Amino acid sequence: MPPIATRFAPSPTGYLHLGHVFAAKVARDLARDHSGTFLLRFEDIDHTRVREEYYAAIEEDLAWLGLEWPGPSLRQSDRAQAYAGALESLREAGVVYPCFCTRREIEEEVSSMSRAPHGPEGALYPGTCRHLTDDEQERRIRSGRQPAWRLDVAKAAEITGSLAFTDMIHGKQAVDPALLGDVVLARKDIGTSYHLAVVVDDAFQDITHVTRGEDLLPSTHIHRQLQAILELPEPTYLHHRLVTDENGVRLAKRHDALSVRQLREGGSSPDQILGMLEARA
Ligand code: GLU
How far does the chain reach from its first CA to its final CA, in angstroms? Predict the structure, then answer.
């Protein structure tokens, strides 16, 4: 196998908890077992949720656990230009459109439809702005309304034809372009989104194996479409299970999620923490 590269991509919105440690370890172990590289990237595009102290705390906890990466870590907040460039390419390819809807308008539209389309995460965008004329788009932009940009998944699928991805746990998966509907690729307020940023950065960091929680499996259908249109390499995927507590509640969803900080202050050693994961995973 040629050299592989994996990454761990936490958001600096809190301390590292056991669920994160599991994700980091999956990525680190895969790289280590193939003499590859394990990289760190901060998903910090949503500046309203990020706090400066968490970057250093996450790095410190990872290093303390022995989950080391060759620095420096990448910050998505430094990459706005790269995301803007990718969005421009998607615009040129004709696969994105501006969306002026507010959240409330979308909710109202969905509840007025007798058969609103649904996906694994709930109601999908009903397509309200998909067919606005160029004139109407311009008129709204000129009137000062800042749009979000959505992927037109049907148009994207026309260009890409059928796609698939390989997951080391779940096997080969056919891409279902309609699964998440016309997702937002550039939010009004931050000019990008998780989907756009992760695809651009995985290519930028030459990530060959994307490991992450299985809650993100549906997102990979979108990511493959974006990679195909942006002509980016296709990584191999590994969507791992999520660590839960004794009641089956995802650790990340618990407000008191066991943080490495707390465990460390309570006297746990790195080996004990990594051992706890083995018991829970
Ligand atoms: N920040 C995401 C998470 O912690 C990672 C997403 C990804 O790896 O693509 O779940």
Answer: 28
